[in-house]
Amino acid sequence: MADYFSELGFRPLAEGEVPDHGAHLLRLLRDSGNFDLLQMFVELRGEGGSSAPAASKAAVQALPLVQPLENENCAVCLKNYDEESQCRMMPCKHKFHQECIFTWLKQTNSCPICRKELPTDDLDYEAIRKHKERESERNQQLESLHNSMFS
């Protein structure tokens, strides 16, 4: 079992490296469950709060090239695929023109159709996302436990 620090990808500071106090405050608010304060802090940092960061370049480049089916169209530009068009398929199996999806993923990290997220290069965003996933798992486990006890 991995410890807390290696699970979240933390590492010791290198020689002469200065800690990011904003990130420390962000982690403290996240870990203590104060999401209202967390949201206020993110807005104060000027990151907009509600929009997700761009998808990581490695994740975008790893999207496989696929052949579109006849009479399919791209959900971003709404044009039909032609024979020369290059399509990329997201992990959720949705297909898009290569240029369309690359432009989209420079703005946000999610599928334009189903909102399934790709990884980002933003460590704070990824840490918050992991925290929310763990919290959702815990809530599902508690619900399952409750149902098994009282049904």
UniProtKB/TrEMBL annotation:
Species lineage: Eukaryota, Metazoa, Ecdysozoa, Arthropoda, Hexapoda
Similarity section: Belongs to the RNF181 family.
InterPro entries in the cross-refs: Znf_RING (IPR001841), Znf_RING/FYVE/PHD (IPR013083)
Region annotation Disordered: where it falls in the sequence: 132-151
SUPFAM superfamilies: RING/U-box
One MF annotation (Gene Ontology) recorded for this entry: ubiquitin protein ligase activity
Protein's organism: Cloeon dipterum
GO CC terms: cytoplasm
Keywords: Metal-binding, Transferase, Ubl conjugation pathway, Zinc, Zinc-finger
Biased composition (Polar residues): 141-151
Pathway per the UniProt entry: Protein modification; protein ubiquitination
Identification of the protein by name: E3 ubiquitin-protein ligase RNF181
Gene Ontology biological process terms from the UniProt entry: protein ubiquitination
Record function comment: E3 ubiquitin-protein ligase which accepts ubiquitin from an E2 ubiquitin-conjugating enzyme in the form of a thioester and then directly transfers the ubiquitin to targeted substrates. Catalyzes monoubiquitination of 26S proteasome subunit PSMC2/RPT1.
This enzyme's EC code(s): 2.3.2.27
Domain RING-type residues, every copy: 74-115
Catalyzed chemical reaction(s): S-ubiquitinyl-[E2 ubiquitin-conjugating enzyme]-L-cysteine + [acceptor protein]-L-lysine = [E2 ubiquitin-conjugating enzyme]-L-cysteine + N(6)-ubiquitinyl-[acceptor protein]-L-lysine
